[in-house]
């Protein structure tokens, strides 16, 4: 195993003074353990005495060294490398090859490019290597030469270690009331009694480097894990271009202008694997993946600050009193719009953008675009000129297939592009359509938000038919 593993959890020092808050066994006692490479593993425990926490830290240090020895031995049949490989392959399948531990040689190549600031490799050749790695049969992998395949467990390693460390400690010290483990930007928390007010992650303190939707309040952490990928920490530059340090396993190429990602999941390995996958995936497809997984939520923020959240993300937040929602969860803001059929020989579906502004035409929320090609989205003139060209990174999260003629519907959650709840006031809904060999049309619909139910409607006459807003009680 190469030297990159040395940073993981080798030769922990347990001599750092513990931090204590509270009194007696009701206190949180924290041990800060240091790796040989200076990486910090923070262990915070509630329910044990100072002496017991010291013994716990020594035991954890010994266990971590055993795991490190197993990884360094490069024994394919050993329990820990085998378990890591199984976890890697499981998540590679679940994410459609957007997280992979097969990329050791490609990782070495890109680290060399970043370090030496050398010319970028030939993209077609890198893509060919990535596709060849994806096609390899799992049962053949242990026999492959390192020239073809080198395992790199980093995409799931921190989560794997945190989960196993948590299991070791909770099993060995039944008196633990609650425990929190942090390694870099990975965190896992366990408590025997769930209490949202006691076990919550302060967003403003802990996630400030991601600027999570400028979100005040706290993230409910009861028996969950969190993984954070902050683009500023993952970035490197070459030839005046900004790249992510995470490689997309699909094409072997690091993503330019990668987003920041926060994932909350039942365990740390799930959170880490998904955070790494979402960093390189198409945003809309990534959010759809999260919405299919139980007890898992995510927030993605583009490098320009646009926020995309899974369906249940905001339900995990305990908002500050100053940040109450404009409407309760039993209300919904429904937008319906119609694309008209056209009596032409060569009909092409229209490209279409839907967005909300204030009365000064400042963007409040980009809701969606129909069309997945930048080439044709540029044909939506007003939207592209004012908004689309200024932040192409957001289009991954907005783009949908071009619509068939008929009635279409979407729901707005009342948040702006940065995830903040909007205030009462006057706004404008905009829907702009453009069709190849057809018309370009813009329909605007002013409305006022006061918290009370209302209806509003407008009508197009070429590409768009009826457009309506219905702010109502959920049926």
Automatic annotation (TrEMBL):
Record carries keyword ATP-binding: no
Cofactor(s) required for function per UniProt: Mg(2+)
EC number: 2.7.1.180
Record has 4Fe-4S as a keyword: no
UniProt-listed Pfam families: ApbE, DUF2271
Signal peptide: 1-18
One GO molecular-function entry: transferase activity
Alphabetic keyword roster: FAD, Flavoprotein, Magnesium, Metal-binding, Signal, Transferase
InterPro entries assigned: ApbE, ApbE-like_sf, DUF2271
EC category name: transferase
Catalytic function, reaction form: L-threonyl-[protein] + FAD = FMN-L-threonyl-[protein] + AMP + H(+)
Tree of life domain: Bacteria
PANTHER family cross-referenced by the UniProt entry: FAD:PROTEIN FMN TRANSFERASE, THIAMINE BIOSYNTHESIS LIPOPROTEIN APBE
Record-stated family: Belongs to the ApbE family.
Name this protein carries in UniProt: FAD:protein FMN transferase
Originating species: Cellvibrio polysaccharolyticus
């Amino acid at each position: 195993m190469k030297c990159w593993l040395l940073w993981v959890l080798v030769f922990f020092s347990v001599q750092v003074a513990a931090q204590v808050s509270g009194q007696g066994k009701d206190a949180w006692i924290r041990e800060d353990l240091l790796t040989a490479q200076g990486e910090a593993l923070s262990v915070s425990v509630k329910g044990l005495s100072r002496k017991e926490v010291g013994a716990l830290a020594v035991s954890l240090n010994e266990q971590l060294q055993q795991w490190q020895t197993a990884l360094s031995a490069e024994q394919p049949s050993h329990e820990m490398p085998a378990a890591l490989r199984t976890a890697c392959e499981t998540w590679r399948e679940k994410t459609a090859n957007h997280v992979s531990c097969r990329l050791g040689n490609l990782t070495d190549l890109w680290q060399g490019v970043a370090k030496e600031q050398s010319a970028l490799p030939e993209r077609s050749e890198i893509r060919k290597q990535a596709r060849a790695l994806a096609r390899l049969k799992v049962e053949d992998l242990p026999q492959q030469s390192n020239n073809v395949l080198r395992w790199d467990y980093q995409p799931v390693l921190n989560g794997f270690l945190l989960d196993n460390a948590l299991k070791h400690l909770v099993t060995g010290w039944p008196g633990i009331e609650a425990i929190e483990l942090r390694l870099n930007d990975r965190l896992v928390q366990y408590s025997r009694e769930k209490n949202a007010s006691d076990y919550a992650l302060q967003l403003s303190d802990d996630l400030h480097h991601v600027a999570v939707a400028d979100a005040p309040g706290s993230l409910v952490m009861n028996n969950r894990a969190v993984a954070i990928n902050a683009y500023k920490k993952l970035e490197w530059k070459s030839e005046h271009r900004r790249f992510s340090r995470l490689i997309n396993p699909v094409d072997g190429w690091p993503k330019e202008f990668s987003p920041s990602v926060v994932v909350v999941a039942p365990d740390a390995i799930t959170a880490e694997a998904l955070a790494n996958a979402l960093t390189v995936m198409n945003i809309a497809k990534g959010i759809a993946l999260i919405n299919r997984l139980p007890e898992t939520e995510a927030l993605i923020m583009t490098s320009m600050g646009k926020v995309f959240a899974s369906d249940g993300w905001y339900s995990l937040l305990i908002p500050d009193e100053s940040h109450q929602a404009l409407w309760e969860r039993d209300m919904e803001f429904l937008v319906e719009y119609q694309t008209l059929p056209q009596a032409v020989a060569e009909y092409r579906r229209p490209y279409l953008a839907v967005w909300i502004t204030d009365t000064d035409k400042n963007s409040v929320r980009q809701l969606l675009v129909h069309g997945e090609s930048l080439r044709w989205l540029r044909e939506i003139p007003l939207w592209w000129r004012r908004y689309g060209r200024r932040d192409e990174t957001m289009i991954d999260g907005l783009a949908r297939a071009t619509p068939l003629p008929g009635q279409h519907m979407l729901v707005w959650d009342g948040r702006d592009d940065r995830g903040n709840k909007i205030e009462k006031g006057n706004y404008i809904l905009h829907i702009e359509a453009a069709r190849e060999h057809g018309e370009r049309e813009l329909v605007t619909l002013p409305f006022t938000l006061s918290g009370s139910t209302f209806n509003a409607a407008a009508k197009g006459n070429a590409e768009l038919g009826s457009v309506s807003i219905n702010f109502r009680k959920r049926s």
